[in-house]
Amino acid sequence: MPNPEKTETVRDKGQEARPLDAFDRKILGELAVDAGLSYAELGNRAGLSAPAVHERVKRLRATGRIRGTVAILDGPSTGKPFLAFVHVDSTGWGKTQELLALSELPEVEEIHSVAGDTCMLLKVRCASSRALEGLLARLYALPSVKATRSYVVLSTFLERTPQAGITAALEETMNPLGTATE
């Protein structure tokens, strides 16, 4: 029998985000290295049963801590060996619809609104310096862009996705005598 009460305002609250524990961090750390691990192997590495790991992974996905599972492509092997970071200065607030529309270009890997001496920071990976020049020409065609500074990467020593671990010592502050305080 149908319920006569209006239920349009009833919403699924979703999964409540609870703090990550050591098992969650271990699972996330292992998945960051190899997202293709089976639940059984992930359980062995985390010290849990496969069903327990499966439930935790489901919860980590439901709370948005795992946003997706992707293959990490190698830039040079895919024809884009030219990596650069482009600082964009603009009139007014940097985040415009036109600038954000650059996310449609596969060469644009990241767009960040930043504090400091620039408005926006872009991470771009191109086929060549000429392709970077073409991307910069598109930037300068935007009415709000007044300047850019490009930093071309010569060598990469570390490039990775966000990691699950936290270095507690980084949260400590140093007093003027050089000793740590909390």
How do the strands and helices of this protein lay out in sequence?
Elements: H1 22-33, H2 39-46, H3 50-62, E1 82-90, H4 97-100, E2 108-113, E3 120-126, H5 129-140, E4 145-152, E5 173-174, E6 180-181
Antiparallel strand pairs: 1-3, 1-4, 2-3, 5-6
Helix pairs in contact: 1-2, 2-3
Structure description:
The chain is α+β, with helices and mostly antiparallel strands and 182 residues long. The chain is built from five helices and six strands, in the order H-H-H-E-H-E-E-H-E-E-E. Mean pLDDT is 87; it is low at 7-13.
Cα distance spanning the termini: 60 Å
The main pleated sheet reads as: 4 strands, antiparallel
SSE topology string: HHHEHEEHEEE
Estimated share of beta-strand residues = 15-25%
Average predicted local confidence, pLDDT: 87
Low-confidence stretches: 7-13
Helix share bin: 25-40%
How many beta strands in the DSSP annotation? 6
Helix segment count? 5
What oligomeric state do these chains adopt?
Answer: single chain
Which word captures the global form? Answer: globular
Radius of gyration: 22 Å
Alpha-beta content class: alpha+beta
Strand order of the largest sheet: 2-3-1-4
